[in-house]
Amino acid sequence: MQALNQAIKKSNTTWDALSLAYEKNSNTFEKELQTITSAFEKLEAEKEKCICEYGDINVDYETLLKINVGGRIITATRSALTYQKGSMLEAMFSGRWEKMLQRDECNNIFLDMNPNCFQTIVDYLVEMRYSSKTKTLCLTCSEKEMDCTLCQMATYFGINHDPKEGNCTLRSERNHADTEEAQSTTQRSLDEANREGLNIDEIFSDFKKAMSDKQKALDDAKQELQIVKTSWGKEKTFIESIVPTSKDDVINLNVRGTRITVRRSTLRIFKGSVLDRQFDDTAWSQRNTGKESINEWSNEQVVDWARDHIGIPDEIANFFLKTKLTVWNSLLLVVKTLES
């Protein structure tokens, strides 16, 4: 009898210790759950604020958008452009940043990019949208020399162009996971129905598994939060990189009959080049501020004028520099002589 009493006392002590441990674990779990929930709510609030300030919540995903890509107008539905969720292209045309996108003089969204490659990406997304899950799609350009540019653009926009890792594969994996989960649930139900009763070992085994599943769910929620945070951070950085500065205006050019639209910053990317000087409005405005007569130009101004004009070879500018030419009439005479 004494042995029985000691066993009962020991079991009660063990149960009290287990209950205390469970209570502490539950409290810790609840605190972490509240922290994760609060972080998700804060993130969603930040997104809502950005949408209200920079976006348009009433965008129609079946609306046709006209996009000026390097001077060529490309038309596509918003749903096609946002088909690959999580991509930067989806973020750009989701409506979340509608007010921040650069536009041309006709109010079309402007992209300073290769139009052939962008059209290929749009065609690829449209085909993915309407193709069967089992069909393998490849993102390739009709112009082979453009394949490298196309790959870089797809990577820039976060477009997954590997058929083995595409949306179709992801969908089939999710379906497979759902099937496995359903089968596992069914098997557990059958196992429970076949039990005649639970013994202590089964109780503790089920309790241990429940606690393990609970912890795993919490870890998964933490990981999901981190993924959402990282994705949102990348999206904001991407949008900031494409938003033009006040001086980064859109320029329309006619190059031997071909209409090209480009950002001024693109033309001036190589500092000190002829293009950089040609499209430097600051330099031209400073040069014209004093309304100085051409006859009063110094040799340095004459040389700068020659170098700033694409049609004048560098040899002529160097000639002006060597001869220390300053008189405008002499400059015209030399130019006419060289032309003849």
From TrEMBL:
Transmembrane segments: none annotated. InterPro entries: SKP1/BTB/POZ_sf, T1-type_BTB. GO terms for biological process: protein homooligomerization. This is Potassium channel tetramerisation-type BTB domain-containing protein. The keyword Coiled coil applies. SUPFAM superfamilies: POZ domain (SSF54695). The lineage of its organism: Eukaryota, Sar, Stramenopiles, Ochrophyta, Bacillariophyta. CDD domains: BTB_POZ_KCTD-like. Pfam families: BTB_2. Residues 204-231 form a coiled coil. Residues 65-140 form the Potassium channel tetramerisation-type BTB domain. Residues 169-193 are annotated as: Disordered. Residues 169-179 have a biased composition (Basic and acidic residues). Keywords: Coiled coil. It comes from Ditylum brightwellii.
